[in-house]
Every structure is written in C-alpha cells, then in structure tokens.
Amino acid sequence: MVRFPARDSARRGSAQGHRHSPQTTRRTGQCVLIVRPRGSQIRRLVAKRIFDDEVASMARGLSGLPFKRGRVLSSPNFLLIDDHGLFSSGVELIIRQSFPGARFASFAALGTALEWNGAIPDVVLLDINLQGISGIEAVPMLRLRWPGCRIVFVTSEQDQTVLARAMASGVEALVAKSESPERLVSVLRRQLPGIQHEPTGSPDFSPRQVEVLKLLSEGQSNKAIGRTLGLSEFTVRGHVQLILKSLGVTNRTAAVFRAREVGLL
Predict the structure, then answer these.
(1) What is the pTM of this model?
(2) Which CATH superfamily includes the segment(s) 77-190?
(3) What does the DSSP 8-state code read for residue 121?
(4) Between these two residues, 76 and 58, which has the higher pLDDT value?
(5) For the purposes of burial, counting CB atoms within 10 Å of the CB of 1, is it exposed (0-12), middle (13-18) or buried (19 or more)?
(6) How many other C-beta atoms can be found within 10 angstroms of the C-beta atom of residue 254?
C-alpha cells in the first residue's frame, strides 16, 4: 500500500495507474490510499471470471442459444431425462424439426436435471427406467421443481404392473419408444397451450369394443376380460389388437391414455 498526500493524489495516482496492475482508490482523512491487488487476489478475480463464463456457457441449450426464463409459446422449452444417448439425440432431432425455435436440453440423470437453472421447461420427457430413482418416483420431485410443467413418459417398459403405476402417477401422457415420431409429436403438441395442433378424432368403436377398452383401463388381462364379458380369450385379443390399431398406439397403456385424450374414457 502506497500513501500520497491528498493535494498530489490526482497527478501521482494517474501516473502510477499507467505502470501498475488494476488498483482501487479511496480517501481517508488527508490522504488518498491506492490499493493494488496482490497476485493472489488477481488470480482469484481471473478464476471468478472464468467460472462465471463457464456458468453462462452451461446456461445454453444444445443449440447454443441461451435459455430464457420467460415462456414463449411459439418457442417451447423441452427437457428430456433419459440415459440412452442415441435415443436422446433422436428425440432432439424430432423436436427441432417439428417445433422451430424450440429450446431443448437433455440429461442422463434426474439429479443433474433438477440442478438445472436454465429455462423453465414447458414439457418434461421422462424415461421410467432411470439409474437410481425411477421415473415414477421422480414425478413428484419434478412437480415440486417446476410446478407448471407437463410430464410425458417415453419408455420401452412392457411390464403392465409398472405401466399401471406410471399411469397412476399423474403424468399427462405416455408414449412407447417403439411408436412413430409422428405419434410423439402429436402428443407433445397437445401439451402446449397456444400451439395449434391437428384435431383429434374419436375412433368409431362398437359397444363391445368400448366395453373391452374400459376393462383394459382397469388393468384386466385378456383372460379376465373374457370371463367378465363371456368371450373367449382369442376374441378378446382380436378386439384389443383392433383397439390399438384404431388408436394408433402399440401397447395397452398407451391405448388407455389415448382413449382418455379423445374422450372415450
């Protein structure tokens, strides 16, 4: 620390400023104190600047565009939580092609996603089978983190018991990974208020098929449905296959979700 008399401070401070590192000036009594940061202080300042730059970089989506807090319906924010990198890349490509201007971020683990401080997601796409905490257990955590988000399960799970639990967890939709990209886009459009989407027509089912569909929604097997309706298991299987085809889905759980969307249940 160097002391200069107050009357010479302006001239000497200016002269010294050209030859030394950044400095801070403050007055005390009759003197002006020029405080030059030590080497360690400069290193800390540089490290902080690098850290801030890294944080700013992390706050960018995969497109390199900064996420923004305000929601713009024409540019929705999507967040995918799935530990299969190839699948995540495919979903990103589908979303970017189908929703121009959309923001997209993906994470392989729930914990990393919950720590994300970027844009508030409009839609969270969630796998059921995650490392550690399952997708079903993650639903209330996501609701707490982002209360206004819509949650869509995207899964390859086939166990009907697990799928029934997924349906009961309160998510907005469920899409099987074996379904078409068009089906995924259709489901996502319906989760975004203000974005125009194609009208959803209701298939023309017979009264018997509606009965089968209602029993499907209760989680009954083909054999149990047959006993209830007095039909053979083979006949029930035929009804179920026709229902899946008419609804454009590949499994019973997705059929129930779809039927609810179009008002059949």
Answers:
(1) 0.56
(2) Response regulator (3.40.50.2300)
(3) P
(4) 76
(5) exposed
(6) 25
The tokens describing 225, both together, are 């449905």
Give the 3-state secondary structure of residue 70: coil
- Residue of higher predicted confidence among 111 and 39: 111
Structure tokens at 243: 């229902």
Rounded CA gap, 115 and 118, in Å? 9
Please name the residue that has the structure tokens 């027509």.
201
Q: Outline which parts of the chain fall under CATH 1.10.10.10.
A: 207-261
Fold adopted by 207-261: Arc Repressor Mutant, subunit A (1.10.10)
Return the H-helix or E-strand segment holding 143: helix 135-145
For 46-73, letters b (16+ CB in 10 Å) and e give eeeeeeeeeeeeeeebeeeeebeeeeee
Q: What integer is the mean pLDDT of 33-43?
A: 52
Q: How far apart are CA 95 and CA 80, in angstroms?
A: 11
**DSSP H/E element including 126:** strand 123-126
Backbone angles phi, psi at 150, to 5 degrees: -100, 135
Instruction: Tell me the pLDDT band of 119, cut-offs 50, 70 and 90.
Output: confident
